[in-house]
Queue: 2 jobs
Job 1
Amino acid sequence: MFVDRAIITIKAGDGGNGITSFIHYKGKVAGGPDGGDGGKGGDIIFVADKDISGLADYYYQTKYVAESGEAGGPKNCFGKSGNDLVLKVPLGTVIRDKETGNVIADMFNHGQTITVLVGGDGGKGNARFANARRHAPHFSQTGEKTETKRVILELKTIADVGLVGFPNVGKSTLLSKITKARPKIANYHFTTLSPNLGVSEYYGENFVVADIPGLIEGASEGAGLGIEFLRHIERTRMLVHVIDISGVEGRDPYEDYKKIMAELKSYSPALAKLKQIIVANKCDIYGAEDKLKEFKKQLKYKHPVVKMSAITGENLNELKKKIVEVLATVPPVKPLEYEEFKYEKPERLSYEIFKEGETFVVVGSLVEVLKRNVVLSDMNSLAYLQKVLRDRGIIAELRKMGATEKSTIIIGGEEFEFID
Ligand SMILES: Nc1nc2c(ncn2[C@@H]2O[C@H](COP(=O)(O)OP(=O)(O)OP(=O)(O)O)[C@@H](O)[C@H]2O)c(=O)[nH]1
Ligand SMILES: [Mg+2]
């Protein structure tokens, strides 16, 4: 199955815990603190890979969690860092934040990487908390916990030339003749169900051709396979518009042309404005020559027309030559414009206070930080907690909300008395 859009959940690895430990000497009760730090959690990294063609993997597996850091060890041993999780995506994958819709990256070049989530920091071991006044800290820090994030992966194929046209006009046949691609070809509508890419060469000039499912009138309203696949030629530099000039299916070639143009325009005016070469295909069929004359008259030289038979190979080189000429006049494909993404740790210092009778509950990311850093059994640590509560304005806020000496304050599951 071809998948060109997926929503996945990613999470960087948690940091490993720091530990509390003391040096053991033979014959001595206890030495100094030697608890090591926890390891850092693994990052979530995306890399663009030219050998991957779709996003099917991300359709079947939607949750990706990088490895957590390991806890520290005695003897000041650092915990092992968690491995990064590297997710390969095809060229042209646009990664967006599900929540904000912002583009995080356009994976445009082979090997391009982007770190979307950074692993949690390891907690500090108790050895780190020793100082002149505190010789034997009986506490250590837990590792930093990471949040999950949802991202949208969307493939917008990168190619030089896009093939458009009604079903069954010979787009895939043409692709198979000018590139090494081997798409499915058959004499019925909607043979092609997902985009095919191929590389064509003309006297040392290479260009990438994208073949997409055929369009019909009303595609923009969902008729046939719809116009969703136009996404895969949105980033091409020019179009080759294939027309069944023989009218063997009973349609008028010029009507076909107009209908396809209308569908392109309703998807994106910019796409409809791309330079085009018209391939008047199936010229080997009896009567095609006359129809071609009529078609050219109606078209009024809006685009160059190449008379062709994809089946017999007539004029294939002529077409390639013209494509190369047009490509020389149009700018290269550019990645999307977006603000450079830099991972930022979520705001960790917010808090909210809820009042339930005489009880006040303080919640928020600040509380999580305090939980990691404060050890209630340690006097210094408690003093630190009080200082933070005062500095961050929590005490003042509590007072304003009506907290008195009778009130109970709950912070991170622990109960405190309110002493102003
Ligand atoms: N006579 C003749 N038949 C052709 C020519 N080009 C393609 N065909 C035939 O037309 C039919 C459709 O060809 P495809 O290449 O599958 O057409 P398509 O435009 O890719 O069709 P969809 O994928 O359904 O949109 C096949 O039976 C081809 O053999 C041609 O130049 N002359
Ligand atoms: Mg096809």
Job 2
Amino acid sequence: MNNLLFKCSKICKNFYQGEGVVEVLKDIDFSLEKSSSVAITGPSGSGKTTLLNMLSGLDSPTSGEIIFNKNDIENLNEKEKALMRNKEIGFVYQFHHLLPEFTALENVSLPMLISGIHSEEALEKSNYLLKKVNLNNRTNHKPSELSGGERQRVAVARALSNSPSCLIMDEPTGDLDTYNALNTVETILELSQELKVSLIIATHDVSLSSKMDRIFSL
Ligand SMILES: Nc1ncnc2c1ncn2[C@@H]1O[C@H](COP(=O)(O)OP(=O)(O)OP(=O)(O)O)[C@@H](O)[C@H]1O
Ligand SMILES: [Mg+2]
């Protein structure tokens, strides 16, 4: 138990639309050990994104319990949840969600600046992380001046900027061609091992899920 980063018991999630109820997740038990990796798989509509949103505190389960680092997420107020997302959990979306007006370097720095880290230190760490994802020659490019794979690697660097204990990714290679997808996968795996970050990745990509410690099917 002490070595668990997440422990989720009997999670249910319903969406209510008018008179109808959509039961997306039913009695899901899920746990993740520190510094380990898991792929969340399942057909489209099976609830992968829904589960990731609850693990990161963006959404709440209808019932059930989500324990993160021994804390019940539902007992945190919105400010504490925002702090958890800023400090403890790096989130990479399917379509990167980088800020278009900012350069790669600025995008990676932002979570650190928000958490009060001095700008010089934030820039130094951003340069380090962008080098790690092989983008040291693209630091001053804006997202529109980067390829799809490069944007996704900036998003990975940004998600790692505050040294989270967990990196959560929703189809991180879904929008990439095979070459860029493999490249991004290698980068994610190397970095997560080096930085001892746990990985939760929702993916349809077998070349990615097969590299995780475990596969959790919905
Ligand atoms: N806000 C919402 N209101 C009503 N239904 C919703 C809402 N969000 C998601 N759903 C439904 O919940 C189900 C699960 O959605 P989710 O996005 O978690 O699937 P997914 O497994 O991530 O699928 P994909 O592989 O296509 O990304 C879907 O059938 C979807 O229509
Ligand atoms: Mg999804």
